[in-house]
Design a protein that fits this description.
Layout (H helix, E strand, L loop, with lengths): L1 E12 L4 E11 L3 E5 L6 H8 L8 E10 L2 E2 L7 H7 E4 L10 H11 L5 H14 L3 H4 L12 H13 L5 E5 L7 H14 L4 E5 L3 H7 L2 E6 L2 E7 H6 L4 H7 L5
């Protein structure tokens, strides 16, 4: 079953540079879909379309449709705050709030009106367990979040998304600033989460793309050149441009 259906999506920034050109994609539910390709190909812009973060940028035109659960999320009447609660975003560098570890996770629930401490406690513990962080921080929940290591902070940021029970998680190079051990933990976590949540990931290198992809889309100069099962795209791509990129002939 497709979770996200993208039809004829184009986006141009105010300076006239077109960042996305006639994107058509059907992203499956409960799988890891990887967006890969050279820097500047449109991957980050595409991710930001999916939870309307581009609303905050100098976008001149957006055309086409992006349908999630039967709703075109590009419609101007859409409740963007609610959309972002269901479609979480994790960036390349951890961005913990200037609060305690506990408050970083509970913040979204509290903003949404949850006040009962037992409910917050339970939700915080569940989210921290989901990202394999509970055993590392359960006795220091009132410490500032910035006392955690980089890898721990990134898992905390994922927990902050998970506590809202998202349907989709978008990740833009989430391990580019992390060491190999932390990277492996994040990758294992995303594979596990994809059993119940749709994961859309723009990795920071081709090796991670190949490791993680249930499905993959090759982005080049704002276009999707090829889309398919990850194994097929990385071992036997149909398009010559994809073959050249995977083989390291450019990019």
């Amino acid at each position: 079953m497709d979770k996200v259906i993208v039809e004829n999506l184009s986006l141009a920034y105010g300076d006239g540079a077109e960042s996305l050109k006639n994107i058509n994609l059907r992203i499956p539910s409960n799988a890891v879909t990887v967006l890969f390709g050279p820097s500047g190909g449109g991957k980050s812009t595409f991710l930001r379309v999916l939870n309307r973060l581009n609303d905050l940028a100098d976008v001149k035109t957006v055309t086409g449709t992006v349908t999630i659960n039967g709703v075109n999320i590009l419609d101007p009447w859409l409740d963007v705050i609610q959309l972002r609660r269901k479609i979480g975003m994790v960036f390349s560098r951890p961005v913990p709030l200037p609060l305690t570890i506990y408050k970083n996770v509970s913040y979204g629930l509290e903003v949404g009106g949850v006040r009962k401490k037992s409910v917050l406690d339970s939700a915080v513990e569940k989210a921290l367990r989901q990202v394999a962080l509970w055993e590392e921080v359960y006795d220091r929940l009132q410490d500032p979040a910035n006392t955690l290591s980089g890898g721990q902070q990134q898992r905390l940021c994922i927990a902050r998304v998970l506590v809202l029970n998202p349907e989709i998680i978008l990740l833009d190079e989430p391990t580019s600033a992390l060491d190999p051990i932390s990277t492996k933990k994040i990758e294992s976590l995303l594979n596990e989460l994809s059993n119940t949540i749709t994961i859309i990931l723009a990795p920071h290198n081709s090796q991670q793309s190949a490791r993680m992809a249930d499905y993959a889309a090759f982005f080049l100069q704002g276009e999707v050149i090829e889309f398919g099962k990850g194994e097929e795209l990385f071992l036997n791509p149909a398009n010559q441009k994809t073959q050249d990129y995977v083989a390291g002939r450019f990019g």
